[in-house]
UniProtKB/TrEMBL annotation:
Record's protein name: EAL domain-containing protein
Stretch forming the signal peptide: none
Native species: Catenovulum sediminis
Domain EAL: 24-276
Coiled coil: none
Highest taxon in the source lineage: Bacteria
Entire-sequence positions represented here: 406 to 695 of 695
Length: 290
């Protein structure tokens, strides 16, 4: 790092930078071990309707580090992407999700789960084959297995992304655009790519309904999505006022701390079972009444 003092350039020793490089090397070594020793896990965050009924879930990777504790994907996904370790991590996540889907199926619970993909995973030619080998091994229908990719991923690799999206589309695997609205200003691509859902980025939801610019942006996104027959999910819903505003402009699917935080699989399963029991209880009551 260089500072300019008058005309003189002075190189400044930055202990902080050194620590972060050391951290990075350590983190990379740790990540190799994490993959080998099975320290990676997935949490599930429900996607719900306005009354809180669970419609699906997003799988979010977690790293249970023996010393650091739970490490956030924000801390290790970029490094994993840089080093290529992301592919192994991604395959692990895909496998864990398929195991869960298989297990829920035996309990007669069918719920779509979305897996996040980074650019390096998405453009890896083995991805589709790897997904199918897991779907087949666990008897999972492709319509329960969804993907989330960011807008910037698609647009920075548009030529390469299109055939990949087409093959997912052909195979019945839905793809959502994650963090929608933060990537590019061009909307033209929406009409050409086979996509199922726009996930409105949390940054637009955060200050609703006080921030009138954000209200206008979110309303415009909802309008475009409807016109293009895309589903919409509002990410990062934290308050009742946000939920009320989003509902009045016609958004019906939500994800956020107001409803649920991401949770370990056992907790999520308890929730699913409780919900499916209350649903069948409601069904029983209506049957008796008829
Ligand atoms: P994302 O896909 O946009 O996931 C949403 C993130 O927002 C999650 O953070 C979730 O915990 C958080 N979130 C959800 N609702 C709320 C809310 O109401 N308020 C706030 N403040 N936050 C909320 P998380 O789990 O830390 O994941 C961060 C990012 O890491 C994800 O963003 C995704 O881009 C990436 N990621 C997570 N799992 C994977 C994975 O398996 N593979 C890849 N390639 N990336 C992953
Ligand atoms: Mg996501
Ligand atoms: Mg997102
Ligand atoms: Mg995000």
């Amino acid at each position: 790092n260089a500072w300019l003092l008058g005309n003189q350039q002075i190189n400044v020793f930055q202990p902080k930078l050194q620590i972060s490089l050391k951290d990075k090397v350590e983190l990379e070594e740790d990540l190799h071990r994490a993959i080998e020793q099975d320290e990676l896990d997935v949490y599930f965050q429900p996607k719900v309707n306005a009354s809180g009924q669970i419609l699906g879930a997003e799988a979010l990777v977690r790293w249970q580090h023996p010393v650091r504790g739970l490490v956030s994907p924000i801390e290790f996904i970029p490094l994993a992407e840089e080093t290529g370790l992301i592919n192994k991590i991604g395959y692990r996540v895909i496998k864990l999700v398929c195991q869960c889907l298989e297990n829920w199926n035996t309990k007669n619970i069918q719920l779509p789960v979305a897996v996040n993909l980074s650019a390096r995973q998405f453009l890896n030619p083995s991805l589709l084959k790897e997904i199918w080998s897991n779907l087949n091994a666990h008897s999972v229908m492709p319509d329960l297995f969804e993907l989330e990719v960011t807008e910037s991923l698609l647009l920075e690799n548009l030529d390469a992304a299109l055939p990949v999206l087409n093959s997912f589309h052909q195979d019945g695997i839905k793809v959502s655009i994650d963090d929608f609205g933060t990537g590019y200003s061009s909307l033209a691509y929406l009409k050409t790519l086979p996509l199922s859902t726009l996930k409105i980025d949390r940054s637009f939801i955060k200050d609703l309904p006080q921030q009138t610019d954000d209200c206008a942006i979110v309303e415009a996104i909802a309008f475009i999505a409807k016109a293009l027959k895309l589903q919409v999910v509002a990410e990062g819903v934290e308050t009742i006022d946000q939920l009320k505003f989003l509902s009045t402009i016609g958004i019906t699917v939500f994800q956020g701390y107001y409803f649920y935080k991401p949770m370990p699989v056992l907790e999520f399963e308890r929730l699913l079972i409780a919900q499916s029991q209350s649903k069948s209880a409601i069904k029983e009551i209506t049957c008796r009444e008829n």
